[in-house]
Design a protein that fits this description.
By secondary structure, the chain is α/β, with parallel strands linked by helices. The chain is built from eleven helices and eight strands.
Amino acid sequence: MKKIDSHLHVWAHDPGIYPYREGQAAPTARGDAEFLLELMDDAGVAGALIVQPIVHGFDHTYVDDTLAQWPDRFFGMCLVNPQHDDPVGMLDDLVDRGYRGVRFNPALWRAGETMAGDVGRALYARAGELGVAVGFLVSPENYDEIDALAEEFPNTASIIDHFGHCVPSPEGFEVPEFERLISMSRHPNLHVKLSEFPRASNEEFPYADLFVWVHRLIDSYSADRLMWGTDFPFIVEQTGYSRGWEIADRIEPAIGPGLAEDLLGGTCEKLFGVWGG
């Protein structure tokens, strides 16, 4: 089975060459591409989608260099500044440089603006025209904005990261935010990343309280709209990179071979292209 990591970050440890964003402290976790490749090789992971890290802000130089050095192992998702004088032009430039997706982070919008406002609508529409996917780093409070964008621009492929930042009830109660996430499966071009298991779960490895959610997402979205991500480098300290993949093997009831192939790589390649191809 070809494994593709749909969600991770890399960052440099030499700010003299690759500057951090203003006010950013030096990250304590090791996040360089060489370290990541060692872990991927050990875990049998063929490729990964690098999401531009907030550590470097809107300076994509380190990710640019990583993509150029290992084009068969990495594709990139860029980060556009919604407060830029020409955010759509910025997106065009980054896609011209080879990025295959763009991340929306509502915390980066101007105060009082939403992702469903003029800037977000222009970026979302342009992403669809360019054939690149939009990744949402959101909380449930942003679901209305996603609904509005997906409704108005159904041809733009999009992805909600990290279970939409829903958290299971320790008592096993229904979680309204997760039910809302399930309901958004009505948008045929909306996908979900199964990622950040350690953050979402109330339990220790293998985070069994999320197993029911995985199966419910498969039932509502289908496996070909879901994708697996480790959230490197954070996963290394949380449980270990290889164990981030072992979660899939521990899910009960077990995910069938055809579904697992979509979750662990096929969906990501459908959206972003074939790694090593």
